[in-house]
Design brief:
This protein is an alpha+beta fold. It has four domains: 61 residues, Ubiquitin-like (UB roll) (Roll), CATH 3.10.20; 174 residues, Threonyl-tRNA Synthetase, Chain A, domain 2; 233 residues, BirA Bifunctional Protein, domain 2; 94 residues, Anticodon-binding domain (Rossmann fold, 3-Layer(aba) Sandwich), CATH 3.40.50.800. 36% of the residues lie in helices and 28% in strands. A hairpin with a 2-residue loop joins strand 7 and strand 8. The model has no long low-confidence stretch (mean pLDDT 92). The structure holds one RNA strand.
RNA sequence: GCCACCUUAGCUCAGAUGGUAGAGCAAUUGAUUCGUAAUCAAUAGGUCGCCGGUUCGAUUCCGGCAGGUGGCUCCA
């Protein structure tokens, strides 16, 4: 018998008989490894345990503990689900079923949509099939054979997929009487699916195209073992507790009203205070960095929107109002007034860069189905700025914005993800402009030292952009900061500056937001802190509590002194037991409860209790003010 | 906009196979003056999202609309 040798991850070599598989290798290394093995990596490519090895291969065994195992487990579980669906609903046509970040899904074309009861039936069937321990086998067919096979099965979506594939052969996985087109790899048998749960049903367009048929998508999740699944479910429950819509109501921050309109936020006193704190913070930070604060009107003449191209490209999302036979567009963006400010006088290269900052409230008619709490609304305020600069200043300006983003996110304790979107097929502007702008964005990203992704062809038609995304409690990504280069508007509005040589030149425009929309940012902020805002952001920093009615006169004095010192305090002098008042303050997540009983009256002090339950020593009001001011300065 | 589901008191939720509804918390009133997560009692509170249809009768069945939830699509 011939022997082959393979290399393991630790660079050791192992000799095997010719024809040995990944599983044979695992066995040769150890029985325990063979038991835990679920797949392998050969020369950098993931393969099944049953894949044969060749002389010189570099091989690694994937076990349940390997980071890459989750995707394989989920992918196989999605096949298991498809098998269950086919067995319960033989008329269902299968389409695609990948693993995703939080689990997996599979799309089916069925006559009648699935009901929640169906979900339970399908899950039960999956358990039955898993228990049956059906081996999962791989075979390779020619494209023609595969098309014929799926045609015979009546799986027209699969036929379409295979026809579009750019390959001579395709691989097919079988388990029991179920077969699916798939690249793999997969678990060796259905019994390896040990911990899964179907989570929801949704509609989804075939191939993501809203003009094509809507399929039924079933979402589920799967893990290596029950413990990990339970942890995931616990995380979901925690996310529900942190939901900004729930906390927003409980802390009385904001509301929506169908009498007012969908997607229009009503800020209550505490929410409006939180907003104001953020806005003040923003104004200070922008002034520090050389921005000028500007302010434009809410409505601008329709003709101006026609000139900018918004009327042509964005009209569907705009609100209009007509007065005295003149149509006005309610602004969906803030750029136009900023352009008008630039144009209000002749600009010299010595004036540039100009950075106009506006906390600009905009209205966009987002489609009804997309609204989501504070995270997707129809009226919102952006921390918007437009930088007008010479092309050669672009690099420095973009770096400046990125470091601004980094500073601000650091203060809030947010981690974020960055994406660079490049020139789409439909776009305007010269190759040279695009290249310069894209390079500037990329250089700034590289300079930041953080990882980033590139979305080829995903830029705006008027220029490339950097998107910065934060995650909500459910790990959904929301775009907050964005930096976009724009070649159109300076052109359309004929913006110029006088260069050193006396020539008129065209400035470059950068649109950018740091927090994005204040509404969305607050939504993410609420979930991030679960409503426990740090002292500098807390709309109510302290609550003065009396033990009995006897302390009210002194407590009143303390309360006014704190107010005068600029501390955001409220009081609770109700005739309730202290325990009850503490409980309420705790539920309101007030950082400091300032307890006043006979002791404090006598010594002219207050005893602060932090919301984590710890007590500070009794202190004078002036000491408390100093303490709070210090904490606020540390953004704590 | 599309698919599915949901809408009952301020909030969280029960409920009747069609005969106009209940709990807890909150609110109000009274008693209690009690030092670190719920004092006790009483009272009040709902055209059962809105508009149509079927029916002797609709909160319940059907249709439309509005709002919401989870997705899809979109996101200049």
């Amino acid at each position: 018998m011939k022997e082959i040798a393979v290399t393991l991850p630790d660079n050791s070599r192992k000799s095997l008989e010719e024809g040995a598989t990944v599983l044979d290798l695992a066995r040769a290394i150890g029985a325990g490894l063979a038991r835990n093995a679920i797949a392998g990596t050969v020369n950098g490519e993931q393969v099944d345990l049953s894949a044969p090895l060749h002389d010189g291969d570099v091989v690694a065994i994937i076990t349940e503990k390997s980071p890459e195992s989750l995707e394989i487990i989920r992918h196989t579980t999605s096949h298991l689900m498809a098998q269950a669906v086919k067995s319960l609903f033989p008329d269902a046509k299968v389409t695609i079923g990948p693993a995703i970040e939080s689990g997996f899904y599979y799309d089916f074309d069925v006559e009648n949509p699935f009901s929640p009861d169906d979900l339970e039936k399908i899950e039960a069937k999956m358990r039955e099939l898993a228990k049956a321990a059906l081996p999962i086998t791989r075979e390779v067919l020619t494209k023609q054979e595969a098309i014929q096979l799926f045609k015979d099965m009546g799986e027209s979506y699969k036929v379409e997929l295979i026809e579009d594939l750019d390959a001579d052969t395709v691989s097919l996985y079988r388990q029991g009487d179920f077969a699916d087109l798939c690249r793999g790899p997969h678990l060796p048998a259905t019994s390896f699916c040990k911990a899964f749960k179907l989570t929801s049903i949704a509609g989804a367009y075939w191939r993501g195209d809203e003009k094509r048929k809507m399929l039924q998508r079933i979402y589920g999740t799967a893990f290596a073992d029950k413990k990990a699944l339970d942890e995931y479910i616990a995380r979901l429950e925690e996310a529900k507790r942190r939901d900004h819509r729930k906390i927003g109501r409980e802390l009385d921050l904001f509301s929506f009203s169908d009498e007012v309109g969908a997607g229009l936020v009503i800020w209550h006193p505490k929410g409006a205070m939180l907003r104001t704190i953020l806005e003040d913070f923003e104004r200070r930070e922008h002034l520090k960095r050389g921005y000028d604060i500007v302010l434009g009107p809410q409505i601008l003449k329709k003709e101006l929107w026609q000139r900018s191209g918004h009327y042509e490209n964005y009209r569907e999302n705009m609100y209009f109002t007509e007065v005295d036979e003149q149509s006005y567009g309610i602004k969906p963006m803030n750029c136009l007034s900023h352009m008008m400010i630039y144009k209000s006088q002749l600009r010299s290269y010595r004036d540039l860069p100009l950075r106009y900052f506006e906390l600009g409230t905009v209205h966009r008619h987002e489609r009804a189905g997309v609204l989501h709490g504070l995270l997707r609304v129809r009226g919102f305020t952006q921390d918007d700025a437009h930088i007008l600069c010479m092309p050669e200043q672009l690099d420095a300006e973009i770096k400046g914005v990125l470091s601004f983003v980094s500073d601000v996110m650091g203060i809030f304790g947010f981690d974020y993800e960055m994406e660079l979107s490049t020139r789409p097929e439909k776009s305007i502007g010269s190759d040279e402009d695009w290249e310069r702008a894209t390079k500037a964005l990329q250089a700034a990203l590289e300079d930041s030292g953080r990882p980033f992704e590139i979305n080829e062809g995903d830029g705006a038609f008027y220029g490339p952009k950097i998107d910065i995304k934060l995650r909500d409690a459910l790990d959904r990504k929301w775009q907050c900061a964005t930096i976009q280069c724009d070649f159109t508007l300076p052109e359309r509005f004929d913006l110029t500056y006088v260069a050193a040589d006396g020539e008129r030149k065209r400035p470059v425009m950068v649109h950018r937001v740091i927090l994005g929309a204040i509404e969305r940012f607050i939504g993410v902020l609420i979930e991030h802190f679960a409503g426990n805002f740090p002292l500098w952001l807390a709309p109510v920093q302290g609550l003065v509590l009396t033990v009995t009615d006897n302390q009210i006169p002194y407590a009143q004095k303390v309360f006014s002194e704190l107010r005068q010192a600029g501390i955001r305090v409220q009081h609770d002098f109700r005739n309730e037991k202290l325990g009850f008042k503490i409980r309420e303050a705790q539920l309101q997540k007030v950082p400091y409860m300032l307890v006043i009983g006979d002791k404090e009256v006598e010594t002219e002090t207050v005893t602060p209790r932090y919301r984590d339950g710890s007590n500070l020593p009794a202190m004078k009001v002036t000491e408390l003010v100093d303490f709070i001011e210090k904490e606020v300065k540390r953004f704590k």
